[in-house]
Amino acid sequence: QVQLVESGGGLVQAGGSLRLSCAASGRTFSNYPMGWFRQAPGKEREFVAAHRWSGGSTYYADSVKGRFTISRDNAGNTVYLQMNGLRSEDTAVYYCAASTSRYSSAGYYTKTYNYDLWGQGTQVTVSA
């Protein structure tokens, strides 16, 4: 069974840091894009960051540029999201996603419908 499992969420004060992890099992995604999205209460799921594939480009939402960093392990099946300088508006459930397609345009990586597999989500709460 192919699945993504996130970990690392929690409660942190504003200005603090958290590191999320997402491990894929059941197949390899080293040559495919993986990303992070988030969903706050009452809002739509939104793009946070994407990693094209191992050794590839990275993409970020404007709201997290300079504060969040996406990376992958050498095997390419675990993706991380290092979150620094957290703000109350970063509070959300964070979802890991993986795609079985490759896209040439950066815009593709920001769309939820271009990802085939999703994790269960991990809660990140930032207190003011």
| Helix share, percent | under 10%
Quaternary structure classification: single chain
User: What is the H/E string?
Assistant: EEEEEEEEEEE
Number of separate strands: 11
Q: For the terminal residues, how far apart are their CA atoms? A: 40 Å
What general outline do the C-alpha atoms trace?
globular
Beta-strand percentage? over 45%
Low-confidence stretches: none
Averaged pLDDT = 94
Whole-angstrom Rg: 14 Å
Q: Please outline the major beta sheet.
A: 7 strands, mixed
Secondary-structure class: mainly beta
Total helical elements: 0
Question: Can you put this structure into words, describing what you see?
Answer:
The chain is globular. It has 128 residues and is mainly β. The chain has no helices and eleven strands.
Summarize the structure.
This protein has 128 residues and is an all-beta fold. It is built from no helices and eleven strands. The strands form two sheets. Strands 2, 4, 5, 6, 9, 10 and 11 form a seven-stranded mixed β-sheet that branches.
Features of this protein?
4-stranded antiparallel sheet, mainly beta, globular, 128 residues, single chain
Task: Please specify the SSE layout and strand pairing.
Elements: E1 3-7, E2 10-13, E3 18-25, E4 34-39, E5 46-51, E6 58-60, E7 68-72, E8 78-83, E9 92-98, E10 117-118, E11 122-127
